[in-house]
Design goal:
564 residues; alpha/beta; 13-stranded mixed β-sheet; globular
Length: 564
């Protein structure tokens, strides 16, 4: 076996043992079985020879208990329903007239918003989506409740959340939580309901019932360090909590991280940088509460020492033949593809920017590299965004038979390949020029859908200047130049991925590049009221100048480096 090569005889049985232990556990954060899974992880880490720390973090949890839809005039409809985490809990029921919002997937112009709000006010709305932003809009309009029809044909009902707050809320966040019950039904039952509703000559009344357990609980978080020569480290993470057994979301990720820990513990004498591995609670029923808690408690350590965050979510899924990477943009494409090509013989199917999810709670922590492995089937048949595109995502059917051992071993080797370069090579695989080109393209795309008054030329000029100024530093082996590049990239991340300060978090929705400016999309002067356009204009100036300020700060760093 070559130095650094993954030892299948040791690592595969280690991963299998975690899957054996986890497959019977329903690991919702705050539950006894979730804590039992932490016991198992810690026992395994100690058996390897590592010394894990068991952090304890209080999280605000929202556990769905029950959801139902009753239609007195349609007793033959027997559709099952689930409620969503952070939906309003209404066990006594909410009664109202059913209304199908045919425009739920369309943007509503400001001058049409009042008419849309009037159509949903006082109604139980049936819709083809239940994203957080839409739920917020329904609450503001005075709707009574939401019935979401899942968009692909699987019969299974998926657990999900409508929580708009990232992590644990601060007091001002409380007003953002939905005031209406939200349930989902599957595609078949939803369309039976719509067909019947279209035939009725008079309004139809229905009753939604939901029950949720919203509470604060202490949740464990196992963390282990494998030190390197320097005090820099790479953060590898996976959430251990799950909906139901959640074997592919995310017991496979937990198993992979344990195998990685065993591999690099053996190679510790070779490591230039350390490896820190964290298993997060609160991913599902606390809206990334665990990773956010960690960022809040360890911000200074992350700012000063962490050079990369690599998140592991749902590897090893049955039928997930295609490798995809979600990356911040600062990572060198050759680096990302090299580990994939070494194992599969091919490059990633695609490399795309990170979205809202995956415990990406660290944009304000100064970390230059953020990326995550994803996988999917050759042909998608489900809207499921996780579990490798499998229809079983977030359902009771996410069981051991959905794991494909060969795929999990493939994925484990790819992660080991990435981490070996990050931990052993002196220079980080940062490509600032590529990132700036991507930022310019994203800015142009955003500009194309904005009103002409929202001119982004000042941001563009900063990016063009940066691309010119960073060129001499890109690829430099000089330690000071590498440090400046890392600091500059971290500032660009704040502009590209967040719209707030380093100590708060954007909502869990409205993603895309330059999120503080995304709210301006498709709002034209001629279709927007004076009041709304004034508010949008204020948003424009503040977010434009925030971006310019961050980019200018990175220019100042580069200039100081050149002078030095």
């Amino acid at each position: 076996m070559l130095p650094g090569e993954a030892d299948s005889a040791t690592l595969i049985p280690l991963m299998e043992s975690i899957l054996d232990s986890f497959e019977s556990l329903n690991r919702l954060s705050g539950s006894e079985e979730a804590e039992r899974s932490v016991d198992i992880l810690i026992e395994q880490l100690r058996a390897i020879g590592l010394v894990p720390v068991r952090e304890s973090c209080p999280l605000w949890l929202s556990d769905p208990v029950m959801g139902s839809l009753t239609i007195p005039d349609f007793p033959g409809w027997q559709g099952k329903a689930k409620t969503r985490s952070f939906s309003a809990s209404c066990p006594a029921g909410i009664q109202g007239e059913l209304f199908y919002d045919t425009r739920s997937l369309q943007a509503v112009a400001d001058n049409s918003m009042a008419a849309w709000a009037s159509s949903v006010r006082g109604k139980i709305v049936i819709a083809d989506q239940a994203f957080e932003e839409y739920v917020q809009r329904l609450c503001q309009a005075g709707a009574l409740g939401l019935v979401h029809i899942w968009g692909s044909a699987e019969e299974a009902l998926h657990e999900e959340t409508v929580g708009p707050v990232w992590g644990t809320p601060v007091p001002d966040d409380l007003a953002l939580y939905p005031s209406i019950p939200v349930i989902s039904v599957n595609y078949q039952q939803g369309h039976i309901l719509l067909e019947w509703l279209a035939q009725q000559k008079r309004p139809v009344t229905a009753v939604i019932r939901t029950e949720l357990n919203q509470h604060v609980a202490r949740c464990s978080m196992p963390v282990v360090d494998i030190p390197g020569e320097s005090d820099e480290f790479v953060l590898l993470s996976s959430h251990y909590d799950s909906w139901h057994e959640g074997v592919t979301d995310n017991a496979t990720g937990n198993a992979l991280c344990l195998a990685v820990a065993a591999h690099f513990h053996r190679l510790q004498p070779q490591l230039k940088r350390g490896l820190r591995i964290a298993w997060w609670p609160g991913h599902s029923n606390a809206r990334y509460g665990g990773s956010t808690w960690y960022a809040d408690r360890y911000r200074q350590v992350l700012q000063q020492r962490c050079v990369a965050h690599l998140n592991v979510d749902s590897p090893g899924c049955k039928g997930a033949t295609e490798v995809v990477v979600n990356a911040s943009g600062a990572e060198g494409l050759s680096f990302l593809n090299r580990a994939i090509r070494n194992i599969t013989g091919n490059d990633a199917r695609r490399i795309t920017p990170l979205g809202k999810g995956g415990d990406q709670s660290f944009w304000g922590c100064g970390i230059p590299l953020h990326f995550a492995f994803r996988e999917e089937p050759a042909l998608r048949t489900s809207q499921s965004p996780g579990s490798g595109g499998g229809w079983w995502w977030h359902t009771e059917a996410d069981t051991r038979d959905k794991v494909e051992s060969a795929v999990l071993w493939r994925d484990c080797q790819i992660h080991i390949g990435w981490l070996h370069e990050l931990l052993v090579e002196a220079a980080l695989p940062v490509d600032p020029s590529h990132y700036l080109t991507q930022l310019l393209e994203e800015l142009e795309n955003l500009q194309s859908v904005l009103d002409p008054q929202f001119d982004l030329v000042l941001i563009k000029e900063c990016l063009l200047t940066l691309r010119q100024q960073i060129a001499p530093l890109a690829g430099s082996k000089e330690e000071q130049h590498q440090k400046v590049v890392k600091q500059a990239v971290a500032l660009w991340h704040r502009a590209r991925y967040s719209s707030t300060d380093d100590f708060h978090y954007d909502g869990s929705y409205r993603g895309g590049a330059w999120p503080g400016l995304q709210i301006l999309r498709d709002h034209k002067l001629e279709t927007t009221s004076p009041q709304t356009f004034l508010m949008l204009t204020t948003q424009y100036y503040r977010q434009r100048d925030r971006a310019v300020s961050l980019l200018q700060a990175s220019l100042d760093l580069i200039s100081q480096s050149e002078e030095g």
